[in-house]
Amino acid sequence: MPIKLPFTEKFLWDLHRFINATEGVLSFFLPENRPYHFRKPEETTWAEIKLFKNNWEFEYKKKKKDFAKIIYRLEQNGYIKRLKVKDKSAVMLTPKGLDKVFTIKMKSKERKQRTDKKWQMVLFDIPEKKKKERESFRRMLQYLGYKKLQRSIWVCPYDVLKETKDLIKRYKLEPHVELLLVKKIGLG
């Protein structure tokens, strides 16, 4: 079962997926004049129209302000960068933002038990000069559902081979990590 993400992480993940779908840049130009939609015109009074318009404008301004706050917070944390594209405002994910998205992807990965009842095992000996990568690697293994058997031996009953390989490549740890598939863990 995937974990529930905090709102800003969910927003960043959705932003990443949207940017990928729109070829790299998200334009967040918001039109000022949007059409109003009512029920049947003959059933709507002028008072209802005015009330609806005032309520809609209030909600629209509030949502626009909330959206601007989220964008500002993500920009302040270094996850996104604002750009000008053809006289419109746009947003681009930074390398730090892409790292955060990768973390969110690992956190929210749906875990499925292996059908063959085998365990994925990761053995690693990462040098001290790559301490930061080692710590990040361990944290990501936990997100994927791995459990620590020893300090540098982790096991997982889930089918996460592809994600584990992606993780190893992302942190450039190929020479320091071995992947095994084992039938059982423990004595007996």
Report the β-strand fraction as a percent range.
15-25%
How are helices and strands ordered from N to C?
HEHEEHEHEEHE
Radius of gyration: 24 Å
Broad structural category: alpha+beta
Shape: elongated
Major sheet summary line? 4 strands, antiparallel
- Percent helix, as a range, is 40-55%
Q: Which strand order does the major sheet show?
A: 5-6-4-7
Q: Please work out how many helical segments DSSP would assign.
A: 5
Distance between the termini: 30 Å
Name the poorly predicted regions. 24-40
> How many individual domains?
2
What's the pLDDT, averaged over the residues?
78
Brief descriptors of the model:
three-stranded antiparallel sheet, alpha+beta, 5 helices, four-stranded antiparallel sheet, 2 domains, single chain, 18% strand, Alpha-Beta Plaits, 188 residues
SSE blueprint:
Elements: H1 7-21, E1 26-27, H2 46-76, E2 80-85, E3 88-93, H3 95-107, E4 119-124, H4 131-144, E5 147-150, E6 153-156, H5 161-170, E7 177-182
Antiparallel strand pairs: 1-3, 2-3, 4-6, 4-7, 5-6
Helix pairs in contact: 1-3, 4-5
Description:
The chain has helices at residues 7-21, 46-76, 95-107, 131-144, 161-170, and strands at residues 26-27, 80-85, 88-93, 119-124, 147-150, 153-156, 177-182. With 188 residues, the chain is of the alpha+beta class. The chain folds into two domains: 7-97, no CATH class; 110-182, Alpha-Beta Plaits, CATH 3.30.70. Helix 1 crosses helix 3. It starts with 6 loop residues before the first helix and ends in a 6-residue tail after the last strand. 14% of the residues are buried.
